[in-house]
Amino acid sequence: MSFWANFWDVIGWFLWAFVFIAYLMALFAIIGDLFRDRELSGWWKAVWIIFLIFVPFLTALVYLIARGRGMAERQNKEVKQAQTAADDYIRNVAGSSASDEIAKAKALLDAGTITQDEYNLLKAKALQHS
Q1: Fewer CB within 10 A of the end CB, N or C, for the chain?
Q2: Whole-angstrom Cα distance, residue 15 to residue 7?
Q3: Residue 3: count of CB within 10 angstroms of its CB
């Protein structure tokens, strides 16, 4: 009998730990969204934070109901901006293809900026790295 009582006590502890961790995750998401929102004034942000401190569960529930859609839109916008920045960085770092390098060298040759020997050297390097 004591085994089953202890077993259900352990299950109860796991349940409450899950609820507490889920609440903390929602709380951090709400606080992050408050500071991410550029349309909400500083006073309203302060009011939300004060209510989150003194009436935490009810305030979190009201916030998620009232501002949940905007919260998701702001998160999606931030993710898209981060993805665009990462893509731009990768494109910048990756460089260009051998044909692009040869075309650039040819344009320099045609403009008289480099000699035929320099063009041949740049062409060989581009073909070697591809």
Answers
A1: N
A2: 12
A3: 7
| Residue of higher predicted confidence among 47 and 123 | 47
> How far apart (Å, rounded) are the C-alpha atoms in residues 41 and 71?
16
Q: Would you place residue 90 in the very low, low, confident or very high pLDDT band (cuts 50, 70, 90)?
A: confident
Q: Please tell me the predicted confidence (pLDDT) of residue 29.
A: 93
Q: Which residue type sits at 56?
A: P
CB 123 within 8 A of CB 108: no
Residue 111, amino acid: A
Write the DSSP string, 29-91: HHHHHHHH-SSS-HHHHHHHHHHHHHSHHHHHHHHHHHHHHHHHHHHHHHHHHHHHHHHHHHH
**Whether the predicted model's global pTM rises above the 0.85 cut:** no
